[in-house]
Specification:
single chain; 281 residues; alpha+beta; Thrombin, subunit H; 2 domains; six-stranded antiparallel barrel; six-stranded antiparallel β-sheet; 3 helices
């Protein structure tokens, strides 16, 4: 067993020595060949010059091919960068256009609101009447039966509970709650609204009762009264709250009243600063 191990060690060392000797011989051979080529090149041997020229051409071609990516990719990078810059500029332009669109829409809204306000001012003649306050609707409290709005004027402007509210000189409701800077208006079609009215050539008296719909109904009429279409209904003023003769709407043959002002389309209203002759609860 020990003999075979020794034989293996001897054979391994011998192989290493043989490899080392051949390696040294290869280096020596290459050195001698280099010296020969060097002296041949110095003394102008033609074969060496031709070989060197061929090698130089080969190196130049390889160098050109190797440098191709560095010449192509900058153009590609520039094109990609230009594409992303163009995309960014388009996005910025789109945002600018959206801002201008929003401004146009806002301008259109303000223009429409100003036209509506001007129409109210011209109709109500607010500027020449000192006992009228123009107010803007802030909140529309719309539910199946309760119909009221919140306006932006209150006791600071002299508004008190019970004052009539109109639009285009048509009655739409009355003040039922006041704050310093706001008030609540009970509309004619509210379930709790009751207005004494008069209409037709006989000055028929009735109560206009709100029912939660757009068209309140006439109640407490003379026995056997027959309704007719298109008869103007006015506030009678008997409650001491509303001005007598304020127009409200037109009658229908089923006892309903088609209001002159749609209670769902209110934006500006006027409050008549007339103190009610009766206390309002």
């Amino acid at each position: 067993m020990s003999v075979s191990r020794d034989d293996f060690s001897i054979a391994f060392r011998s192989a290493l020595l043989q490899r080392g000797a051949s390696h040294k011989f290869s280096i020596l051979s290459l050195f001698i060949v280099a010296l020969i080529i060097f002296f041949l090149d110095i003394y102008g041997f033609q074969a060496v010059k031709t070989t060197r020229s061929f090698i130089n051409d080969l190196v130049y071609r390889v160098t050109y091919l190797a440098s191709t990516p560095t010449r192509i990719f900058p153009g590609i990078n520039q094109g990609v960068a230009s594409h992303f810059n163009l995309k960014k500029e388009n996005e910025e332009l789109r945002q600018v256009i959206e801002r201008y669109k929003a401004q146009d829409l806002n301008l259109e809204y303000i223009s429409n609101e100003n036209k509506n306000l001007k129409k109210v001012l011209d109709t109500e003649d607010v500027q020449s009447v000192s006992n009228v306050v123009l107010a803007k609707v802030l909140v529309d409290r719309n539910s199946p039966f309760l119909k009221s709005i919140i306006i932006n004027k209150g006791s600071k402007e002299g508004i008190i509970k019970g004052m009539p509210v109109t639009q285009n000189k048509y009655l739409i409701g009355r003040i039922v709650e006041t704050n310093y800077l706001s008030s609540r208006v009970l509309l004619l079609n509210d379930l709790n609204s009751r207005i004494p009215v008069t209409f037709d050539t006989s000055s028929t008296q009735a109560i206009l009762t709100g029912n939660g719909t757009r068209k309140p109904t006439l109640e407490y009429l003379p026995e056997g009264y027959i309704f007719e279409d298109d008869i103007t209904v006015f506030a009678s003023g008997k409650d001491g709250i509303f001005n007598a003769g304020t127009p409200i709407g037109k009658t229908k043959d089923n006892g309903e009243v088609d209001l002159f002002v749609d209670p769902n389309q209110l934006s500006f209203v006027t409050v008549n600063l007339i103190k009610p002759t009766k206390e309002v609860f």
